[in-house]
Specification:
The protein has three helices and twelve strands, in the order αααββββββββββββ. By secondary structure, the protein is α+β, with helices and mostly antiparallel strands. A six-stranded antiparallel β-barrel has the order 1-2-5-4-3-12. Strands 6-7-8-11-10-9 form a six-stranded antiparallel beta barrel. The longest helix is centred in the N-terminal third of the chain and has 39 residues, at about 80-115. It starts with 19 loop residues before the first helix and ends in a 28-residue tail after the last strand.
Length: about 300
């Protein structure tokens, strides 16, 4: 029988279904639909939260070897490094004792002035201690994940600080964890106050320095009174951050002749590279008293000077 007359089509048992191009178009359209639906309607938010809860034990388990390795390396550091750390701690304790004495004196003086001027006491900020679990793997953002979430009372937009200054802000909540966007992230912004000139401005992230991530003061005129070394603290006018928290220090000031604005770079006070424990603060706007609701007006009644007909 000639070979050209043989039927070379595969039998029905071996048919492969849709073609590879059809599958590619279908799954690409499905992925695009899911991205648009999640971005606009948050349809995958419950699934993401549930997945975060399910994967939390695995994340903790995977972090145990790293923590054990770090703890073992610190333990085997030797007696010499421990003695040096103790000497440095004693010197720092002496300096902090002197500073604490001055702070107590200033606190007493401040309380007397508040009583004299009949000012209301400052708001007491509620804080939640938390531990940094890991840093986000996205190379285009600067975010951390902490082990406190909505179940522990963390609210969306809560400030996150450490013992040096402001680190960032909670931008996404899960039942047991939270996502913190750092101040050096490209989408971060914070209102600041220059402690030397008392000038208010806004600091934005997403700038790079030789020493790492940095921030930038924008929309300041070229002749603005800003000098390298000026300390920037939170202004407290946004209803989120308490006033007076250290944010950054001016690293450089570039006054351009061809532009009406100055390029001012800031070095953050708090670095996230060696941070393990943080404090999550309650936003200032949630601590303000609720304004009293207006009393309802009863029909048929008039004011004190009115008459009823």
């Amino acid at each position: 029988m000639p070979l050209g007359t043989l039927d070379r089509t595969p039998p029905p048992f071996f048919r492969q279904g849709p073609s590879a191009l059809t599958k590619l178009v279908f799954f690409a359209a499905l992925a695009l639909f899911l991205m648009v639906a999640d971005g606009r309607f948050q349809v995958i938010k419950p699934l993401r939260a549930g997945l975060a809860v399910v994967l939390l034990p695995a994340q903790r388990a995977l972090a145990v070897p790293v923590q054990a390795w770090q703890g073992g390396a610190a333990y085997l550091g030797g007696l010499d490094s421990a003695l040096q750390a103790r000497s440095a701690a004693d010197a720092r304790l002496a300096a902090l004792s002197e500073k604490a004495a001055r702070v107590d004196q200033l606190r007493v003086e401040n309380d007397r002035l508040r009583q004299l001027l009949d000012l209301r006491p400052a708001l007491q900020t509620r804080s939640i201690p938390a531990e940094v679990m890991y840093e986000a793997a996205d190379p285009y953002s600067r975010k951390l994940f902490i082990d406190r979430g909505q179940t522990q009372g963390v609210t969306l937009g809560a400030p996150v600080i450490n013992d040096v200054g402001v680190l960032g802000q909670v931008t996404r909540l899960y039942p047991l964890t939270s996502e913190v966007t750092l101040l050096v992230d490209k989408d971060a912004a914070i209102p600041v106050l220059n402690t030397r000139t008392q000038q208010r401005s806004a600091a934005f992230g997403g700038v790079a320095l030789a020493s790492g991530g940095a921030m930038e003061l924008r929309f300041l005129s070229g002749n603005a009174d800003v000098k390298p070394g000026d300390a920037m603290v939170t202004s407290g006018l946004d209803g989120v951050y308490p006033p007076g928290l250290p944010v950054a220090r001016v690293a450089s000031v570039e006054r351009r002749a061809d532009s009406g604005f100055a390029r001012i770079l800031l070095e953050p006070a708090a670095r996230a590279d060696a941070v393990r424990h943080v404090l999550v603060l309650e936003p200032v706007g949630l601590q303000l008293p609720v304004p009293p609701s207006p009393e309802p007006v009863t029909p048929g009644k008039t004011g004190a000077k009115g008459t009823r007909r």
